[in-house]
Amino acid sequence: MFQKFSLYEASIRVPFIVSSLGHNLNIPKGAYDHKHFVSGVDLLSTVCDYAGIDPPEHARGMSVRPLVEGRDVPWRDFGFVESNYWGRALLFDRYKYVCEYIPYGDKKDLLPPGPDPERIGLEQIFDLRNDPGETQNLAYDENKRALLTQCRQALLNFEAGLERRQITHERPTRQIGNWGQRIRAHWDAHPELEALRIP
To answer: What is the pTM of this model?
Structure first.
């Protein structure tokens, strides 16, 4: 797969499976951990942990070794997903927040977007417990406004800790430039989208 273009559960929810030959890890059969958000970025830290070495300084992942061993350790409160360069999602226990940054449509897009509240376009909130098919966007529900604000702030806080590097290689530069121009042109051609943004 070249890239995911959807932030729905069917596209982003990938199981993290731990298995062991022999009895070295003492993993109970059929165990399922639904409490901890594990991400692909945790692979490097986990391998380094089992190898007995420190992960690289820039690694943002967490070793799942303590979880495998049944130890109680501090863990992240949500999962973070980035898709299609401008798309973002945060997965919490019950709710999921989805948004997309609005491209500039020029060379400024070559610096990955965020955290920038002024560039956040359309937003979605789904109640995964009561709406697992993600069919009801709660972002426009006045009763969920505090939740929306909390989710948006969690995204901005998380992204403030990410290191951003200017895209310089020819192929991605061309691709991101084309996408950014097309998405920006769509926003410019549909001013009604601006009215759908939530302040």
So the answer is: 0.90
Nearest-angstrom CA–CA distance, 176 and 62: 30
Residue identified by tokens 């594990």 is 38
Q: SS3 of 53, please?
A: coil
Range of the domain at 174: 79-196
4 touches 84 (CB < 8 A)? yes
3-12 tens-digit pLDDT: 567 898 988 8
- Do 103 and 86 lie in one domain? The reply is yes
Do 55 and 124 share a domain, yes or no?
Answer: no
Q: pLDDT tens digit string along 101-142?
A: 999 999 999 999 999 999 999 999 999 999 999 999 999 999
The strand pairing partners of 96, in sequence order, are: 91, 126
Report the length, in residues, of the chain: 199
Residues 58 and 109 both lie in one domain: no
How many domains does the chain contain in total? Answer: 2
DSSP assignment of 183-194 = HHHHHHH-THHH
- Is the dihedral angle over the CA atoms 42, 46, 48, 49 positive or is it negative? positive
CA gap 132, 27 in Å, rounded:
29
